[in-house]
Amino acid sequence: MAKKDDGSRVRDALRIGGKLPDPGSAPVGPGKKPKALAKLDSAGERLSALQESLYAEGVGGGSRSVLLVLQGMDTSGKGGTVSHVLGLVDPMGVRYAAFKKPTAAEQRHHYLWRIRKQLPAPGQIGVFDRSHYEDILVPRVSGLLTDAERRRRYAEITAFEQELADAGTTVLKVFLHISPEEQLKRLKARLVTPEKRWKYNPGDLEARSHWPAYEKAYTDIFEHTSTAYAPWYAVPADHKWYRNWAVAELLIETLADLRPRFPEPDYDVDAELAKLKGVGVPA
Amino acid sequence: MAKKDDGSRVRDALRIGGKLPDPGSAPVGPGKKPKALAKLDSAGERLSALQESLYAEGVGGGSRSVLLVLQGMDTSGKGGTVSHVLGLVDPMGVRYAAFKKPTAAEQRHHYLWRIRKQLPAPGQIGVFDRSHYEDILVPRVSGLLTDAERRRRYAEITAFEQELADAGTTVLKVFLHISPEEQLKRLKARLVTPEKRWKYNPGDLEARSHWPAYEKAYTDIFEHTSTAYAPWYAVPADHKWYRNWAVAELLIETLADLRPRFPEPDYDVDAELAKLKGVGVPA
Where is the composition biased (Basic and acidic residues) (chains A, B) (predicted)? Predict the structure, then answer.
């Protein structure tokens, strides 16, 4: 499906390993909007083909799946990514879950309880719009997480992701990286556009006021939970066209790596064709 | 959103009330492929807009949702409908569930147990690819359902759907109606096309051999479970272009009827705009 020689070009460029790229930059791939849109268009076909193969593999008894974890500050474009990138593939193959503030019922369970319930089935691409990482970010920034508890959560989460990898789920963790200047523009746009007002939440400004604390919390998360089996990627997200292109490519490279294949029929094709020849039209 | 004067034109024409339309016919709407494709294209925009409003309403605390139930013989195009019709809207707003042969674990529960777990959340469009109706169809055709038990299931299912309606879920039940001749063509196509072979199941021929029994079982289901709050619609499905157009229109009419609205902000827009003005860029 994807060419072998560039099979991890975007992943290599965007894997987090130290300083994050500038939110307005384009460290790999198209640097201008028209080219990025055209490339996203053709990426759609590759993504669809790979998704269909993975899905077929699942129907044929395969156990593999992909889980895209989207994290980022408010307005960083998690929803837009789902719409523009996952919207390119068959809805049958996508399982989307958003994790908001835990409900009272959810809070009575371990924080991974509600996460486990939303894992993709074999053959599916799962998408987490926020995730178990919120269970480090929010309590940490609110000062409700001791250092010992925070370290325990890193360990629990890496163990959980190892378990997923062992079970056949490839976890792709993407941080959508926007600048505070761009966030301000987007928050304003949500307020001045009547049909966008439902997306605005006064709490977003409260979170924004803790921007440096979130940056620190994210940095530590990247350091402690980037593993060989589930590394973190940073996607510069001030430009929506770049964000969409980059996430599509990260997904394509990840899926192509799995080399999903249509399953071999577990029946005799010729025998079935012969049976069909003898089949009449029911009265 | 949708014009008031044709707000239930397609539903009126396709609502089951006696003899089913011919599987190759086009009882309402476009009668030729090019026109149907063009109309589906513009339907996509209306469907997307309605879906976004419903979703926003859900975010704003609304409880309403829509559940599209797809039934039909093998190859009738349930999967194709999901891909071509639900593929037109934002994946965030769609919850897809396929119901295959119940697993051993599922069989230990009441047949509605696994169904309830897949209901759409407020604001979502749920899609059932097969459904609780399989729990009448399959055992009945296999001779495993007494008449008394069958009647009990009709009653349980209409009560269940009443419960859904009361909770704010509008159930749209669609029978994709294909002819045995068209099914034969599609089964052959699945066998001769290597990348379609995974969709073929030798059991499909076994089911096909009971075609008249399935027809009878469906007829009785339509008679006993078509209610004012959850009527059945038959979509002629020998032509994929007609099927896609018709299901899209049924969904649009159903959504338009709900008149979903963007929620009023539960915050003071001007006050928030003023706050944004005073917000600096975090250091």
Answer: 1-14
